[in-house]
Amino acid sequence: MRPLSVLDLSFVTSGASASRALHNTLDLAKLADRLGYVRYWLAEHHNLASVASPAPEIMIGQVAAITQRMRVGAGGVMLPNHAPLIVAERFKMLEALFPGRIDLGLGRAPGTDPVTAYALRQRQDPRSGDEFLERLQELMLLETNGFPAGHPFRRVKAMPSDVTLPPIWLLGSSDYSAQLAASIGVGFAFAHHFASHDAVDAMLKYRRQFRPSAGQPTPYAILTVAAISADTADEAERLAASADLSLVRRERGEYLALPSPEEAQAYPFTPHDLAAIRHNRRRLFVGTPETLLDRLAPLIEATEADEVMIMSAIYDHTARKRSYELLAQAFGIVPGLTLPAPVQPSPIPVH
Question: What is the CA radius of gyration of the chain?
Answer without folding.
Answer: 20
